[in-house]
Amino acid sequence: MRQSALKLFIRSMCGQIRYSIPEEMKKGSVVGNVAQDLGLDIKRLNSGRARILTEDNIQYTELKTDKGLLVVSDRIDREQLCGDVTPCSFSFEIILENPIELHRIIVEVLDINDHAPIFPNKESAVIFEISEGVALGVPFPLPSAEDQDVGQNALQNYILSPNENFILNQNANPDGSKYVEMVLQKPLDREQRDRLSFKLIAVDGGTPQRSSTVNIEINVLDANDNRPIFNQSEYKASVVENTTKGTRLMTVNATDADSGSNGLITYSLSGTVNIEINVLDANDNRPIFNQSEYKASVVENTTKGTRIITVNATDADGDSNGLITYSLSKMKGGAADIFNIDETTGTIYVSGQVDFERNRKYEVRVEAKDQGGLTGTSKVIFDVIDINDNAPVIHIMSFSSPLSEDSPPGTTIAILNIKDEDSERNGQIKCSIERKLPFKLEMSLTNYYNLILDQNLDRESVSEYNITITATDLGTPPLSSSTKLHLRISDVNDNAPLFNKNIYSAYVAENNSPGTSIFAVSAGDADWNQNARISYLLEDTQITGSPISTFVTLNSETGVLSAVRSFDYEQIKQLDLVVRAQDGGSPPLSSNVSVRILIQDQNDNAPQVLYPVQTGGSLLAEMVPRSADVGYLVTKVVAVDVDSGQNAWLSYKVHKATDRALFEVGLHNGEIRTVRQVTDKDAVKQRLTVVVEDSGRPSRSATVIVNVAVADSFPQVLSEFTDLSMHDKEYNDQLTFYLVLALAVVSFLFITCLLLIISVKVYRWRQSRVLYHSNLPVIPYYPPRYSDTLGTGTLPHVYNYEVCRTTDSKKSDMKNMQAMSQSLVSVDGADADMPHVNKELSGNLSQITGWRLPSPQQQRERSHPDPGPERQRPSGPVPSADGRLAAGRNGASFCRCGLSCDKSG
């Protein structure tokens, strides 16, 4: 085999590449560099998963994607692949994906001289029986050899071995095929040589040259070409007269060189006679067809027995030499199974299945043979007429599913191979898909169609397509076939999450428990799978200087907002925050929504009375003249509620009163007015308990005591309210006594325990000394482990008690005091030892012992770790609703042990 044959490639405008290789190349031999010839990168071959597609699934070549080489993978026999058809080639497609590419490769297979000419029945000799009387120049057809090779490698010449009688004559049929005859050039003489033998050699034109030989044997048949010959030219004999009949006189002898009946001799005596000679026919003419080539048409699928054509041959010889029989020879392409001939009439009829798709043309050789063995030949060509008996066949060569929804128009989705084995209009195909689909079909190569994206896709609108592809031929009637492609659209993260509301508002009651779920935000994403997986995030914002994360927390999966702390409506009334919904795509998409959380007020604050101020140590009184008429404004209770709304709506009512018929309080304004005319019978001291109540559910309230002095002058008021102060003082003295008594009892118990412990210690020490100095055996003694209570109690080791109290002189602390207004007076039991009374009352009552609130500096100077309520309540001058001053009282003061008391307090 010649491995150095030239390998060529040609790239056409349609992207085809053509290679030429010799047949019978070894496996692994390189056909061509596909990557280089197609202009493709090696990486592209690998990433595109390049592969070979063939129609009949027979692959003679293999693609090495790592090198881009096309190599031989199977034995390529040109004669088996194409027969005598030239040129011989096979084609296939190389397909790449992502994106889809299709390239056609055509490989032409060149013939090599791998076959010698072959004679039929090579093993047996070709035998002729020829009469020696045959005339010179008569041809005798010889068997033809067949060579499967083509071109120069095919049969080129015949050679006849040297002999005296015959020469070789080579002729060509109309189809170009050669046939040979041997022609008699020297008469045969059976009497000299009755048997001839020589060889016929068929030679091709390949290099090296191949040949084949067949033996030819000729039996020379006798012809009556020799007359009898007497062994003497003259015979003499004597006979006696009157010799009887039957007497043998003499014997003559003659011989004949012929054989058989031609050599049988009869003797007779003759005279002169007229002789008529009949010339007998010799088989010296071969049959001749009236046409050197016949053509006929046969419709495929014609029923068996149908007559197609009748051939006719004539023979110039007569009698039996002119009788002709017909036969078919050299039938290729399965013609022997399809056609037969009537050997007598020469009628050719169908004997098998005629299939246009298997073979579109048949060639047979008709042979006419007479009784003498002479033959004549002619060729019959049958053209098969196609009928539309094959529907188009659709093969899916490549299909990309799923297809990304962001694929641009023009993207190849599938490659289809659609073929119809019929011809002309019966094999012409029209392909279509359903309308209203965003796809179209385009022809790329012969019999190949590309399914191409024609419009933009949106998976959220249509997530999958069922594409029906229909192929219809143009025959009559038309035949069609269809196939379905199920195309899934893969998701691309092209949709951001969308909240179901443009803005969210939620309410949460104040004083909630930390961790309370407030509400949930919800967003949807039209994408799919990971691209639609939403997580919720809080945007960083500040509320009153603190991060939003210190107020609420957001569940990233459920979108539930929960409180981190307990909210106080009086501090924060609403929270404005931004929630971001983000999907899981790459890159992720997100959207924001504003959320407003409104804190709902709860009735958690009781009303606070601003006026009258409850000083605790001082007694305030509103002064009402006895001349006051109905509706006289005594004072106004001023209260506020830090709650809001209904929880801050306040109402006022009198709970207790010395004389309920004298005063009333406004339900909504808190004004205390007289209900009737004040009379002299009304008591000077009037005490009203006013309840301030909000409208919450449940409601909260505050109570304020309003002291009213019904008098026209201050001295009357002072004498009445002094007794009240003394009663308070006595109560305080009793409280002090009980406290001192409790401290004394505790101190006594502590000292008793201490003495007991010391006694036990001394006793143990003395016992140990006695045992040490005695002669008694020492017995270990383990004293019990007593709990040491020293220093573990709630009282210190040393207790110092100091009781301080002011001496009540039952004298008023207020001397030369003149009120700024006659309607307000402050009365208090006074201590006789008050050294810090300022007698200046010319506009402001500035310093009155027991009435002032210690300044911060004074509080630091006093070492009071826990100032009592008495010291925290304001006791200085307090303005009334109408600008008047109220003074505190100087009552008895009790100081805790270990603390220093202000002399004025």
Describe the structure.
By secondary structure, the protein is mainly beta. It folds into seven domains: about 10-110, Cadherins (Immunoglobulin-like), CATH 2.60.40; about 125-220, Cadherins (Immunoglobulin-like); about 290-385, Cadherins (Immunoglobulin-like), CATH 2.60.40.60; about 395-490, Cadherins (Immunoglobulin-like), CATH 2.60.40; about 500-600, Immunoglobulin-like (Sandwich); about 610-710, Cadherins (Immunoglobulin-like, Sandwich); about 735-885, no CATH class. The longest helix is centred in the C-terminal third of the chain and has 60 residues, at about 715-775. Mean pLDDT is about 80; it is low at about 1-15 and about 775-905.
Instruction: Report the sheet-strand fraction.
Output: 25-35%
How many independent structural domains?
7
Given the helix and strand composition, which structural class is it?
Answer: mainly beta
Number of strands: 57
Q: Largest beta sheet: what is the strand line-up?
A: 1-2-8-7-4
| Low-confidence region ranges | 1-14, 776-905
Gyration radius (Cα, Å) is 71 Å
> In this structure, how is the largest beta sheet organized?
5 strands, mixed
Pfam families: Cadherin, Cadherin_2, Cadherin_C_2
Main location: membrane
Organism: Hippocampus comes (Tiger tail seahorse)
Transmembrane segments: 735-760
